[in-house]
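I hope you will forgive my troubling you with a question about protein structure. The matter concerns a single protein, recorded as an amino acid sequence and a row of backbone structure tokens. Please examine both parts with care and let me know of anything in them that strikes you as inconsistent. Here, with my thanks, is the record as I have it:
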Amino acid sequence: MTKGANVGLAALSEDTGAVVVGLSWSSATGDGDADVSLLLLDDGGKVRGDADFYFYNRPAAEDGSVQLLGKVPTENGSEDRISLDLTAIPGDVVRIVVAASQDGGARFGDLDDLRLMLTDRSGEPLLGFSITDATVETAFIFGELYRRNEEWKFRAVGQGYETGLAGLATDFGIAVEEEDEHGADGGGGGEDVGGTEAAEVVGIGAVPAPRVPVTGTDPAPEPAPGPVGGRGEGPVGDRVGGPADNPSGGPAGSPSGGPAGSPSGGPSDGPSGGPSGDPADGPAPVAAARRRGTRTAKKKVTLPKAAKKSLAENDSWKPARLFPVPSYKSDREREVRATSVLLSVMAEVPEFGRRLTAGFGAPAGRMQTFTEVSLPHGDSPKRPDGVIRTERAGKLWTALVETKTNGNPLKSEQVQTYMDIAARRGYEAVITLSNDVALEGSPLVTVKTDGRRKHKVSLWHLSWAEVAHQAQLLIRHEGVGNAAHAWLLQELLHYLQHENSGCHGFQNMGPAWVPVRNGIDTETLCQGDPRAVEVVESWERLIRQVCLRLGGELGQKALPVQRARRGTDPKSRRAELADRLCAEGKLSAEVRVDGAWSILSVTADLRTGKIRTSMDVPAPDGAYPLSVAKRLLRVLEEAPADLHVETLVDGANGPRGTLERLRPEPGDLLPGGGAAITGFRLSLFKGMGSGRGGAESGFIRSVDDAVDRFYGSVVTHLGQIEQRRPARARQTAGSPEAG
């Protein structure tokens, strides 16, 4: 679509009752990111109240009509997806506006491939819209869905704001209270962010407080008449490049921080779905906007992070569990039990069931689940592991479920059979569930679809790690409707994490792991070896699982960083990484975690048998070098003694040493010749497991342990000293959390 164009959804598909909107972007440096948000507007172009604003800390409507599905990695970047059940949108909502915003001085012109994609419930693309003229904007309205004569239509907007979150928010009746923030020295000197002088006070490597959304229920005054595309006559607050047929502005940007009131990933002290705590407790949010008037329809329930003290006499007493995990005799028993446990909890806990099925096109209706259903197929009936049915407005959505546990692979012929059955019976989807993690360009199973059939069946995949991730987010950070539901999810999570459940996620580096490792050790592995590509794919699956686990524990978005060139397809990108593995003997990855100061790097050196986890911490401008070094070492007072600290000098390597050696002599971190310090690189090293599986001594377990140790013992301790964060650090630190 072109900017300003519109189209009726009915002209694109016969079934548009539920759609998924995806906003995607990429970055040449791998550091860029943005936060998606969505607003429901009445016929006056205003939000009806707080509940009409959806963002990271309020990801779902109570009725399931809106569901923010979160970010997923793509070929060259990431995509933020939103599920919309248009049949459940309230009748007095006439417009749904989809937008994204950036923070901390970042601009949309720094991102590549800005794109909106709209798909139907089967995942079939309906339309796409690319934004190619982004420059200095800090917020963008990508598009909007609107009612016209009882039909939903889509308009490609592509409208930018230089005033970011606060400037965009006020157009839709969102109350914004602005204030001046001062630095530690009490003076001004702050960078002009979105038209408001906001000096930000943060620590060296600080984990910033979550950003505070700007919203409210008090309508803002109607803007004075003026040229279309501007809120006022001055440059501050003007929209950039708005289409002439768009009557008003756009939604507020989405905060990207973690759970409210918990900068380090702990559960929120306030009701989930709205931030709690005083914004003054942390760094100033974008444009120094403060949220006020927050209300939620119902208080959400989360479980405390720390378990209550046990009343057992000793550790041999095991608490009773709703879902016990005995020693199973066969993989079939594991599959049957795991399927029944999961599907029963999905049907009983609406937030959880919708979370897992919204992205698959399921409507936000009454859900029932079934196991071991017999369905006719030729001479003998077939029994899928499960069936999910959702009803809304008299219409049924049905998905067949095929489950594998204990690392067993999915079988293409079995999935193909279920696809054929679903097509003949008019079902909408087949969902596969296994320990494996799906990648772009590398399908887990290959199936054929009959293009002559009018009815389309979509094939979706879930990893057990993703199931655990969603349960963790709900019970620890976002909350569910009542305490019984939270307890059910906790029991499910305990079951999934039990060593006998077989639902541990990705747990095998594959048959190519040992020969590749041996080939690197003997220097006989040649570039172009297809086994190296298999290992690279397994490594990518492992890193995605690390992101799911870390993000669920912290309540933050965690995604692998892609630094591929624009237009690079997954196959060629992995081939290039495989050649690098053959030449250097290293597997490397980067992870961006919201709230962390910069990107977390993970490198597995197969030649030395070491795993290195590291993070670069920018140094503040204008401070004395020795003072910076002393402050950093004080921040790391509780970090492991074997932590390596390396001084960075204009991108080069400077002095280095372990904390144990540097603590008594901070001056050893200072480079010679008075060279300016640009930052520090903090690294931990750990021995690498050799086995391909997930055993205690295996490679996968050693990567998990290395990431956990670094994040828990280093990253969480950063940020105890207040320093003014320089503008350059905001733009290069690799964290979307700038305020």
In short: The chain has a mean pLDDT of 79. The longest strand covers residues 151-161. DSSP finds 13 helices and 30 strands in the chain.
